[in-house]
Design a protein that fits this description.
By secondary structure, the protein is an alpha/beta fold. It contains 8 helices and 7 strands, in the order H-H-H-E-H-E-H-E-H-E-H-E-H-E-E. Helix 3 packs parallel to helix 4.
Length: about 210
């Protein structure tokens, strides 16, 4: 996921607002105790998510893919006073760990954490969302986008993580694997969708930021 030289990455972090003590603890504990800790959004991306959310001031956020809750806590920082963030994950094994951090945070009452299959749950949600963050299984990115699109208000934002896929999306010497092909298709789908404006940010593993017209 590291595309920039280490020194540039370090300089960027040194000139980015600090993560909270709770987020720093979650960051450390995820890396120490949880498999695939590189899935955690981390300091730089987390501050960007927080900033975008704070600028947007969403009343309703939907997150697809919770992992250990770092990105949810960052996004929740921008919620309105009556705001709610709904976050969905299928991994029951991390539920207790993740909920413990939500409960320690000032956003405990604003986070609706669901253990469920997002493909079946999303159609049952009746909220209109101001912000959606997609960070789950890559094969379903296009489907998640289709499922949430009509639930996002005009002027709302959809953000998808991992769209550079550790650089695999530009490897041409061999046939892409299924996840890489799914992301190639997703990036093309967004870029050619006349209903949105988009920018692919080469932050960490790539963030596709989509603004719905």
């Amino acid at each position: 996921m590291e595309f920039l030289p280490a020194a540039i990455e370090a300089y960027a972090l040194a000139h980015t607002s600090a993560e909270s003590p709770l987020l720093a603890q979650l960051n450390r504990e995820t890396h120490a105790k949880v498999l695939q800790s590189r899935m955690l959004s981390g300091h730089l991306q987390g501050r960007l998510l927080s900033l975008l959310s704070t600028m947007l001031r969403p009343r309703r956020i939907l997150e697809i893919g919770t992992y250990t809750g770092y990105s949810a806590l960052c996004l929740a920082e921008g919620l309105t006073d009556d705001g709610v963030l709904t976050t969905i994950d299928v991994n029951e094994e991390l539920e207790t760990f993740t909920r413990s951090y939500f409960e320690q945070s000032p956003f405990a009452k604003k986070i609706d954490f669901r253990i469920a299959n997002a493909v079946t749950l999303i159609p049952t949600l009746n909220d209109t969302f101001d912000l959606v963050f997609i960070d789950a299984d890559k094969l379903n990115y296009g489907l998640y986008y289709d499922l949430v699109f009509d639930k996002v208000r005009s002027g709302g934002v959809i953000i998808a993580d991992n769209v550079l896929w550790s650089g695999k999306i530009i490897q041409t010497e061999k046939k892409p694997d299924k996840d890489t092909q799914a992301l190639l298709d997703f990036n093309q789908k967004i870029h050619h969708d006349p209903r949105v404006s988009n920018v692919l940010l080469p932050v960490r593993d790539g963030l596709m930021v989509v603004w719905k017209h």
